[in-house]
Write a structure and sequence with these properties.
The structure is a single chain. It is built from 15 helices and five strands. By secondary structure, the protein is mainly alpha-helical. It has a five-stranded mixed beta sheet with strand order 1-3-2-5-4. A hairpin with a 2-residue loop joins β4 and β5. α4 crosses α5 and α5 packs antiparallel against α6. It is elongated, with a radius of gyration of 30 Å. This is Unplaced genomic scaffold PAXINscaffold_440, whole genome shotgun sequence. It comes from Paxillus involutus ATCC 200175. InterPro entries: BTB/POZ_dom (IPR000210), SKP1/BTB/POZ_sf (IPR011333).
């Protein structure tokens, strides 16, 4: 061996694995499982984590003008370098999304008998699917996914994110549902979420205006007080009427003050608020156990006119 010759360097298994982790494309591609491994498929989408999804050009073309235009272009001939990107004699299209996203995206493009409607476990995967749908111009898929974000699992846990996503995609019904749910919080309570960066300041201002308008509208309850007197709570221990000892004006003022901050019936059903009213009523130990239930029942009756008042307030949604 000459002095200039260098010994061949062998990569250790650890280094090879590290390289694969840094660049998933280095990993040997694997086939996706059913239903994306059918032998009669005519195109393969290879994800960034090296999973091959066999699918159909026709379905992709129907769902996506992006792919329709791609397939309409002249295909590479046998002497072109691109022709080597095949597997099972099927052309391969590399995509930048991970397999978890492509599986859900293709499921939305599949006939209903082919796959079940994919579950969207959290709003992070929702955003990934929506971003992919935007990228490939799959408008129908995007609209379908947006309609799913008002499910309780999302709305109850992250209502501000739901509002921002719905607002970003100009989904009027979903934006309104999320804004209505946001009435359960004071205007200053929701924390910042990254999705707010994708909507305008005027979009957020309209949410604040809607919240304030609902808070002002609850003052209309004043004209209904005679229809909803405080419930009696006869107590054989204290020989008094329990809740009726609560000043009507004190109760009315407490209701209006609470609803101006959080204008929804859930405010009045909050156990902490009910406990405050019970303490103000000065109920004895004998009737305190029944007082919360009485107030809950009373509030549920009050919920009907309150809901009608709030429903009259419209959220302004700017369309583009």
């Amino acid at each position: 061996m000459s002095e200039s010759a260098q010994p061949t360097q062998q990569l250790s298994p650890e280094r090879t694995n590290a390289s694969s982790e840094l660049n998933p494309r280095c990993m040997a591609p694997v086939d996706a499982d059913s239903p994306f491994n059918r032998p009669h498929a005519d195109v393969i989408l290879r994800t960034s984590d090296s999973v091959d999804f066999r699918f159909y050009k026709l379905l992709l073309s129907l769902a996506s003008p992006f792919f329709a235009n791609m397939f309409a272009l002249p295909q590479p001939g046998p002497l072109d370098g691109a022709a080597n990107q095949t597997k099972y004699d099927i052309p391969i299209i590399p995509v930048s999304e991970k397999s978890a996203v492509i599986r859900k995206l293709l499921s939305f493009c599949s006939p209903v008998y082919d796959t079940d409607v994919p579950a969207l476990e959290n709003l992070d995967i929702v955003m990934s699917v929506l971003d992919a749908a935007d990228k490939y111009d799959m408008k129908r898929v995007g609209k379908f996914v947006v309609k799913m974000i008002t499910a309780p699992q999302f709305l109850e846990q992250e209502p501000m994110r739901v509002f921002a996503i719905a607002c970003r995609y100009r989904a009027e019904a979903e934006t309104t549902i999320a804004a209505r749910y946001m009435l359960r919080f004071a205007a200053w309570e929701p924390a910042y979420v990254a999705e707010l960066d994708f909507i305008s300041g005027s979009d957020y201002q309209r949410l604040i205006k809607y919240h304030a308008s609902c808070g002002q509208a609850v003052g209309q309850l004043v004209r209904l007080w005679s229809t909803f007197p405080l419930p009696p709570l006869d107590c054989k221990f204290c020989r008094k009427k329990g809740l009726s000892r609560l000043s009507l004006k004190d109760y009315q003022d407490s209701v209006i003050d609470a609803l101006r901050i959080r204008p929804c019936v859930e405010t009045l059903l909050n156990p902490e608020w009910i406990e405050t009213m019970v303490r103000k009523a000065g109920s004895c130990p004998g009737c305190r156990d029944r007082a919360p239930r009485k107030i809950q029942d009373y509030t549920k009756e009050l919920a009907v006119p309150l809901d009608e008042i709030i429903s009259q307030i419209r959220l302004e949604i700017k369309s583009y």
